[in-house]
Amino acid sequence: MPELHLEQVQRFLEDHLGTPITRLDAVGHGEWSQAFTFHRGAAGYVVRFSNLDEDFLKDRRAMAWSSPALPIPRILEIGNAFDGFYALSERAPGHFLDTLSAVDLRRVLPPLLGALDAAREIDLSDSHGFGMWQADGNAPHATWREALLSVALDPPGRRTHGWRALLEGSPAGAAAFDAAYAHMTELVDACPNESHVVHSDLLNYNVLVQDDQISAVIDWGSSLYGDFLFDLAWLTFWQPWYPAWQGIDLAQAAADHYASQGLYVPNFPERHRCYELYIGLDGLAYQAYKSRWQDVNATAQRLQALSQP
Hints:
Elements: H1 6-17, E1 22-26, E2 34-40, E3 43-50, H2 54-62, E4 75-81, E5 84-90, E6 95-96, H3 102-120, E7 131-132, H4 144-149, H5 163-167, H6 171-187, E8 196-198, E9 207-210, E10 213-217, E11 224-226, H7 229-238, H8 250-260, H9 268-289, H10 293-306
Antiparallel strand pairs: 1-2, 2-3, 3-5, 4-5, 6-9, 7-11, 8-11, 9-10
């Protein structure tokens, strides 16, 4: 979708809502949509626009999972706008997890791990499959192993189709991908064939924090069904991109958290490393699709470090 200007969005919202709006501002984050915050009276809202409605529909489905430990803002409307789609939702208070200092992150770790506990306990008996689920609540793969190994595929129907040919233009990136994928295949059999809700994008300005508590977990467009340790691996794989967090051992904090609950997590190191490799591989594919070659080089270096014996 072409970049939308504030005047266009203001006009659309006031025409659609039939009332003036105030404090309209562009959020500035988001890969597949453009987001804006605004007020209608005293209440705050978020409106997003995209060529695709799939992510908005997933957000609406995820609303049913909201709880005090895992707060998910309500989607109020989904409809058509600007030759695409819009989603109107309540605005949650707080600031982004990505912006926290080490001191603040340490304080918010218990509720963050509590939010992941709440996601792990969601009942998925009315859904089936593994991997990235669709708006109908079902996912395409028969097993979690199959979903993990599919990271090397580049089927025509995928949003990022063409990534592999683009990655071949970066010899370092392609070599790092193949080596990390080979390493991942050695670890994948340690991963249980269990289905839990995985957010799969906890950074990128998708978690809001207020008063040392999680105030919202937003944007479920990348959400998967699979092993709950995947979300921990998301945080640890990208942790080097957050210099303020370097002194925090997130994996050990999670292991201690599970032990305090009496939760036995077999093959923790192998599963955790397998998912870190998957996340880096998926990151390389996306970065190549977007032609973000500096990011490709940085992610390739991270994968190479993780692939060392």
